[in-house]
Amino acid sequence: MFNFFKRGTNRPQLPYTTEVHCHILPGIDDGARDVAHSISLIHQMKEWGVKKIVATPHVTEASFENTPQTIDAAQAQLRQEIDLDELGLTLCYSAEYRLDDNFLGILERGEMIPMPGNHILIENSYLQPFWDIKSLIFNLQMKGYSPILAHPERYAYYYQEKEIYKELHEQGCEFQINILSLAGYYNKHAKEVAEWLISKQMVDYLGSDLHNRNHVMCIDKYLSGRDFSKHMRNIALKNDYL
Ligand SMILES: [Fe+2]
Hints:
- The protein is α/β, with parallel strands linked by helices.
- It has one domain (18-241): Metal-dependent hydrolases (TIM Barrel), CATH 3.20.20.
- The protein is built from ten helices and ten strands.
- A seven-stranded mixed β-sheet has the order 4-3-6-7-8-9-10. The protein has a three-stranded parallel β-sheet with strand order 1-2-5, with helices on one face.
- It is globular and about 45 Å long.
- The model has no long low-confidence stretch (mean pLDDT 95).
- Residues 21, 23, 96, 150, 209 line the site of fe (ii) ion.
C-alpha cells in the first residue's frame, strides 16, 4: 500500500512515480501552450510525487500531425528553461498516437517513437473505433511493439459491447485509465466504466492525461478524497516498471 500523502507535507500523492500520459510539451498540441505553462504543470507533477515523465503529445491526422522533429524541438526548448536534474525529474518523450491513416503511414515508414520497453500509447477516435483495431494491434505486436490503449473508458461506442474490452486485453493490449475519469471529470459513464475495468482487473496503467490547470485542480481534489482510496484498493499498476 502506497502513502497517500508525502511524508512531512500535506500534498496528495499520485499512486505512481512514472507518468505515462501527459501533454506537457510546449505549443505542439492542445496541452501546455508555452514553456511557462509546461513548467508550471511539471512542478505540479513533482508535488504529486512523480519522478519520471513520459511526455505524450498528440499525433492526430489533420489536427496535430506531430513528427519526431516537432516533438524533439519542443522538449529541447523546454529543457533550456528548466533544470530537471535539480528537480529530481527524468523526462523522456513518446506520443499518443491516434489510430488513423496518418498513423498507418508512420507505422509503415518506421517513424514511431516508442516509450521505454517498446510500448506505444494508442487511442481511438471518440466518434468511432478504428475499423480493424484487433488486426492493427496484432501488427504492432508482430513488429515488436507493446500497445497500450489510452483511456478505454472514454469510448462511448464500447459501453454497450463490453466484451471488446476483454478481447483486446486478452490479445495483449494493455489499458491505461485516466485519473480524470475516476475523478468524474468527463462524465459519469467514463467513471463507471473505469471502475468496472478496475473491478475486472484490466487496468495496467493510470495516467493523468494532464493538459491544463483545470485538470490539475480536479486531480488534486480527487487525490484528497474518499473515492481515491476506494479505487486504489484493488489495482496493480505497472507504471513504475516502465
Ligand atoms: Fe492524451
